[in-house]
Design brief:
Helices cover 0% and strands 15% of the residues. It is mainly β and 88 residues long. The protein has a domain of 55 residues. It is built from no helices and 2 strands. Bound molecules: zinc ion (ZN). The site of zinc ion has 8 residues, from loops. One of its GO terms (molecular function) is DNA-binding transcription factor activity. One of its GO terms (biological process) is regulation of developmental process. This is ZF-HD dimerization-type domain-containing protein.
Length: 88
């Protein structure tokens, strides 16, 4: 009697693909002293893998993802026919 290995077929739930991008960091680092100063980070980069706590932290500036400007793109990532630049 050997170990019975049955293949696990995990069907991922069908979900609508929604592309969300996080742009510039808008955390005010000078709020404590009544000023306004951002760190200049222009795009959120996850510090860790998706699903971990580090994924919500920016690798570049160290701020939480919620400080970054959120942009939702619903269309295809690249549509060469309607971009303003001549080359894609
Ligand atoms: Zn930041």
């Amino acid at each position: 009697m050997g170990p019975l290995q049955e293949p696990k077929v995990a069907a991922p739930p069908v979900k609508k693909e929604k592309v969300v991008r996080y742009r510039e960091c808008r955390k005010n680092h000078a709020a404590r002293i009544g000023g306004y100063a951002v760190d200049g980070c222009m795009e959120f980069m996850a510090a860790g893998e998706e699903g971990t706590g580090a994924a919500l932290k920016c690798a570049a500036c160290g701020c939480h993802r919620s400080f970054h400007k959120r942009e939702v793109e619903r269309e295809a990532p690249c549509d060469c026919s309607s971009v303003t630049s001549p080359q894609c």
